[in-house]
Amino acid sequence: MIRAYTFLLRPTARQQVALGEMLRDHCSLYNGALQERRDAYRHASKTSVRYGDQSAQLKDIRAFDPERQGRWSFSSQQATLRRLDKAFQAFFRRVKAGQTPGYPRFKGVGHFDTVTFPKDGDGCRWDSTPHDRQTRVRLQGVGHIRVHQHRPVQGHVETISVKREGNRWYVVLACDDVPAQELPPTGAVAGIDMGVAHFLTTSDGEHVGNPRFLQAMADELTGAQRHLATFPKRTRQRTKKHRAAARKVAKLHGKIRRQRADFHHKTARTLVRDYDVIAHERLGTAGMTKSPAPKPDPDRPGGFLPNGAAAKAGLNRSILDAGWAQFLGILANKAESAGRLVIPVDARNTSRTCAECGHVAKENRVTQAKFECTVCGFAANADHVGATNVLLRAGLVHCAAA
Questions:
Q1: Share of the chain above pLDDT 90, in %
Q2: ∠278-280-284 over CA atoms, to 5°?
Q3: How confident is the model at residue 402 (pLDDT cuts 50, 70, 90)?
Q4: Is the alpha carbon torsion for 66, 68, 74, 80 positive or negative?
Q5: 3-class DSSP state of 147
Q6: C-beta of residue 4 within 8 angstroms of C-beta of residue 175
Q7: What pLDDT, in 10s, does the model give residues 216-247?
Q8: Which residues are within 8 A (CB) of 307 and not within 5 positions of it... i.e. 6 or more apart?
């Protein structure tokens, strides 16, 4: 199996400066390569510049600017050029598919946060031995950086990435041939229904509360964002106070993100430990959180009718705060590692279908929490009914009965 390990770096003050310079120079290389592609297409009879052409120029670029480009790993710079090439490939793929394309953009220094080393030992080295408390990673141009390795690394290290999040630095190891750690069978199966009132409900009737991390930090985050917005645009990124205000907003978002990920990991681990097979709804979060289309008012040219956008915005915020997509991805990874099975099923009408007689109607869902069938009168918690229907659609009812 392929697994990624993320560890916190503990660089010295000098190493932090060097890491920042590494990101800055790779960002400059990315933007320069993007500018070359734009200029070639606009001014050279729509000539296309590809990755191979730009990679062949790296040797001359490093010789021309040894202070900023020549000091870093050649393979990491190739990875930065591949990153740009993938962005263009995705752009052309969306154009051909008739989707809304997004042309690759120039990266600001504050938005270019990752440098990748494609091979362990080529410009980087993961120095770690079992039970070693002094784990370090060596980066060309930076040196040996201490790593807070909170768990052992299994498998073979393929690629190493250095990532910045606010004032923190992380190393991400992509490992291959990671052995599975199968758990003993429990003989239990479950369907889960994702929600907003409850984060999830199992077919056994157990509710897992929604922590609402974004809502809990809303007041503090709003105050920080308002303070950041008070700076006029002409002085942004120029004053020490503005940079401090931006760092505070980023710090709060980082805390929310880490809290949410920790909750997802713990919840997924509990499900994988307790059940052999887990069925869940196949959710399209992007479509569910899409803003409603405007409704032109035929009686008022240029006017619009109410379309419920304000109410939908609140629901969208709650869905994104819950982070269903991230949780289901974590659940699938943990299940694979533990030898469990995860089954996605069609999510349509799971909370409107009677689990007793199969009648489907929106009137069955009386309120957010109450379900009452209009045909047979079966009444239960709506989320519990949804989880039971997920279990039925996965064909696991006979397994649960056995």
A1: 62
A2: 150
A3: very low
A4: negative
A5: strand
A6: yes
A7: 999 999 999 999 988 887 665 678 888 889 88
A8: 292, 293, 294, 295
Q: How far apart are CA 143 and CA 10, in angstroms?
A: 12
* Residues 262-280 pLDDT 10s: 999 999 999 999 999 999 9
Q: Which two structure tokens, joined as six digits, stand for 255?
A: 């805390």
Q: Are 316 and 336 in contact (CB under 8 A)?
A: no
> Rounded to an integer, what distance in angstroms lies between the CA atom of residue 222 and that of residue 226?
6
Look at the block and give the residue holding tokens 């659609």.
393
Assess whether pLDDT exceeds 60 at residue 131.
Answer: no
- Assign 344 to helix, strand or coil: strand
The alpha-carbon radius of gyration of the chain (Å, integer) is: 26
Closest CA to 282 of 204, 348, 339: 348
Of the candidates 59, 47, 50, 54, the residue with the CA atom closest to the CA atom of residue 32: 54
What confidence tens digit (pLDDT) does each residue in 287-344 have? Answer: 888 888 888 888 888 888 888 888 788 888 888 999 999 999 999 999 999 999 999 9
Rounded CA separation 63/232 (Å): 41
How distant, in Å, are the alpha carbons of 147, 164, 208, 390 from that of 276?
35, 37, 19, 16
